[in-house]
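Example (one chain per record):
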Amino acid sequence: MMKEENNLKSSKSIFLIPIVYVVTIWLIYWIEIQFDFIFNKYGVFPRNFVGFRGVFLTHFIHSNVSHLFNNSVPLFVLLSSLFYFYRDVAYKVLLLGGFFTGLITWCIARESYHIGASGIVYLLFSFVFFSGIIKRHFRLVALSLIIIFLYGGMIWYVLPIKEGVSWEGHLSGFIVGLLFAIVFRNRGIVREEHQFIETEFDALFDEHGNFTPPEIKQEVGDEKVE
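Predicted structure:
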């Protein structure tokens, strides 16, 4: 009973952060529309001191409902996967990864306001995908490929193929996810190599698999006969 309660509690916590994150970005957008605010200016503006605040804020700001919706579903799926498979490093990947994604964007991007959680989406996608390959955990690789299939070749948007899209933010997240997959390669789900433990039965066979019966010993009185 105790084990079942712990599993239920653990299962609930897996979805807590994804739900809170998605609800938060929708709430922020609702406040922006409802009170006629413009939060775009709080996004990343590269190589500008004031624009550096966007490194921390950009992942919560979106330009329209379509932008918000396109990020929400993969964000929920990938965050849930992160907190299920990598509970011990999930917060580090999300918080530090989000910071470095914003920082690299601030360093390399065009001089414009860069907003949206898509940098986090690419961070999580890259981390889950490459972790699956490095750890040889192919369920994670399969999950990443499903995400690619469902969301229309998102991998191509790390390149400047569409005007008005922050491919620099996508590329930054993708790079950070790959680096974190390497750094945390021994954390989270790690494929275990099975070790062979020899038993008494195994000792009856030589290295070529031939049966070698043990020497039969008998004891008679105080004298041992072999």
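Caption: The chain has seven helices and two strands.
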